[in-house]
Amino acid sequence: MRHLLIGILLSMILVQANAEERLFFQPLNVDSSIDQQTWKSIWRSTAKAGVKVVIVQWTAHGESNFGGRDGWLANSLRLAQEQGLQLVLGLYMDPAYYQRHAELDGPALETYWQYQLGLSLAQQRLLREQWQLPVVGWYLPMELDDLQFQAPERRRVLYRQLQSFANKLDAPLHVSAYTGANLAPDIYAAWLYELQSLGLSVWWQDGEGTGSLSKTVRRAYGQALPCEVGIVSEAFRQVSRDGEPFRAEPVEPKRIYPQCHAEAVFSLGYRPWGAPLRANR
Q: Full-prediction pTM beyond 0.85?
């Protein structure tokens, strides 16, 4: 019995460590008020928590580039690397992305995606030439959902666009997706597996924080995923209602699905040592 208990405890520790190895960071302009010493402390605590890779959600958001090469974000990320943290850098995000998705269809949506991917490619080149931060991957901030990509033809077009885009990059491309239960779990899982087969790192957001779907439905989608698709555990609970500005409070991320999946946590601002970020938001 004693050996069994030790084994269980070791397994729990291993799951915790694996889940925290990758952590998302969503930079906002208000974070520019955080001083360098505080950033150093945040990244030191991040590394101590077992995080190996920080996935930065974007490095350009509309007209904001967060200060550019010598700005607060680039300087903060240099401090992260000093703590031994590796970086997956997010590219360009259109603030009107979700609105445009709802408005466009057919060739217009294809053209919109092509234009946004062009902006992200330009951002990737700028990061390489000016920011000069070593990276282990690139993250495309345009999240995929099964409402806008419910039609098979849209998914086929997306496949070709992402294939072409990824081939232009010098490090692996990461993308993330979520579900509104608009595709059956097996079809949804097959779609994400097909994207992963391009050599992409595909992440599925578990929806535990927003709770927009019932627990039973969320778990059905997570359990249908092939092991090759990573899972993002949401370390928050949404407290705002529909129509209100988004508000959430931190919670411990739930370890629900098999250990065969790569795991990440969303996000730095909701982890205990990310309190300085929450104070700004």
A: yes
